[in-house]
Every structure is written in C-alpha cells, then in structure tokens.
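Lab notebook, bench 4. The sequencing result for the construct came back, and we need a structural model before the next group meeting so we can plan mutations. Quick request posted to the team channel:

Model the 3D structure of this chain.
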Amino acid sequence: MTHACYEPSRLVEYYPRGNRELRSLFAKFQPQDTIAWFKARGLWLKTEADGRLFPISDSSSDVIAALMLSARKGGVHLHSNARVQSIEHNSNDEEEYHFTVNLASGETERFNACVLATGYSPPGWTMAKNLGHTVLPPVPSLFPFTVKAPLLEELQGISVEKVSGRLLSPTGQKISSLEEGAMLITHTGLSGPLIYRLSARAARELAEHRYKAELILDLLPELSIEEVHRRLEQCFKEDSNLKKVINTRFEPFSHRLWLALCEAAEIDLEQRADSVPLKNLRRLAEQGIKRLSLSVMGKSPSKEEFVSCGGVSRKEVDFKTMESKRVPNLYFAGEILDIDGLTGGFNFQACWSGGWVVSEAVIAKLQQ
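Done. Here's the predicted structure in token form:
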C-alpha cells in the first residue's frame, strides 16, 4: 500500500517520471500520513523487511472497506454502472455548473468541478484530450526481460541477492542509470527488483528500441575487480582439499550458477582447480562476474508488466492543487498522469498523495 520511506526528498528518488513534481505532494501527504489515515479508519499496516507496507490482515477487501466507509461518512454519492461517454466544459463563468458529464445511458450530470482519476484507461485519456490536454503515449514499465543466453540455460529459479546493472542501446549508448537489487533467473530470462528498476528507468527508451538492449551486470558490486581476482586465485589455487573445478565453491553464488560462469569462461570443470590458466581466471572475473553482458531480446512473453509510463502531461497540471493549467476547475489524480514509480508501494503512494491534495483543493475552491 505504501513504502516505509518518510523523507520526501528521498521518496521522490523512486519515481523515474514525476519525481520533481511529486515533492510538493509528499510535503503535504506522505507515507506516514497514509499509515495514520488508514489506522484512523481501523486498518493497521505492517512493514516488511524490504520496506513495503501491507494491511496487517493481508486482505485487499479490508482496504476497499476502509475507503468505502470513509466515502459514505463523507457523504459521497457513488454511481455504479454509469459509464461516462464524454465530458463537456462550459467556459462561461456566469454559469453555475462548469462541466456536463454525458453517460452512455443517455443521461447527463452537471457539476461545478471535475476530477479525472481513471488510471491506466484509454477512455480517460481521450476525455483529457478532448478537454484540451496533451497525453504522452503510454508504454509498459516494470516488466521482466526476455534474455536468451547459453549461460542462463538450466538456471531457472536461481536468484542473486545483490547485483548492479545498467542498460545500453543496441548502438552502445547508455539508456539507464546504474541500478542495484536482487535478480531472479526465469525460464524466459530475468526478473526481480533489479530488472524492474532498470525497465522502469528506461521504459520509453526500451520502447523506442523495440525492447532490444545490452544488459551489463556486476554480480559482485561490493568488490573491486582486484578483490575478485584475489578471491578467485584463493578459490582455485590455495585450497588444496579441492581437486577438481567442479568441486569448488564460490560465495555468494549458488553452485549451479558458479559452474555455469566457469564454463562460460572456458574452464574445464573436470580439470584440477590449481591448474586453471590465469587467462581463464581473468576472463571469469572481467567478463563473467564484474561485467557480464547479456542481450535483452524483449519483454517477458507472459505479459507481466503492471505499470505504465505516459499519460496526461505533468507540465499542464499545477501540482500544488492538482488543478489543470488549461481548464479551470478540472483536476487530475492517480495514474492518468505521466507519473510512475518503482515497485514496492510507490505507485500507490503517489495515488494516495494526489487524491488527498486534489480533494483538499477542490473543497477549498468550492468554498470560496
């Protein structure tokens, strides 16, 4: 539901798009406020080891119940099964109502303020366009990579807890910052927090290159290349109890991953460990552990992406109130905007913060 990051200046770093604009939102309503808001309505949250917060009941229906109860107490009238066909804006200030909402049923409703909070929704973006707003084309964010490499064959299910990586375009240009996190090898390629972060940071660039890229991984980012060399020499040369390469162990890698890296460095698993040539050790360190290059062939075929970048242009919204800069009394909140965060509760928090700010602003505006 949110993340245990309580400094707005740090919190905005988890948003590839919208980090500058979100600072003003988080100054007014941040994760601590989200926790307190739900707690006041009987829903307690628990913090996981990685900072993610969930309902203590692990039930999404409890979240819905808290929201619905608050809406009822606030006098909100919910019109279900009332699909909006279009929204018209009346620019005449003398009119009491500024918006006419046309329903698919043929009925109309009139309002003096309108909030678009339609999330990832082409109809919502169409309404925003018709009201004069620019919509940046949405593309997937937060998705696994399809990677085909002999090294990864038979390694499905293996995870590496701490890996750093970056993405290069097919022509060798950097298209992502250096990210760090756990990585999981899947039956089609790579997944896990590191991969989601990279896909989010480079979402639009990856789309432009049709999801083809070079992935550069450092499997031991906490060690320098010299330290890796020393550890490899110790592993292969100094332990006289290990006779063959296949019997060696190299922490923190699983044995299957370790042997796959050795084979990729053209090291014979059946040879004596203390007879491996230095050139093979250098190849293992430099091209296998510290700079492993893999070709990204596309997104995962399982359609696992669950966030998009794109939407209503942030330049056309006043983030102090979430009001449109183009249409008075029109507001935006949530994923209809060109804002997206990394996995871990950040996308929810942007929605909670935007929802709080927009509702406070609308109430203040209508009370003038």
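The longest helix spans residues 346-366.
Will bring this to the meeting.
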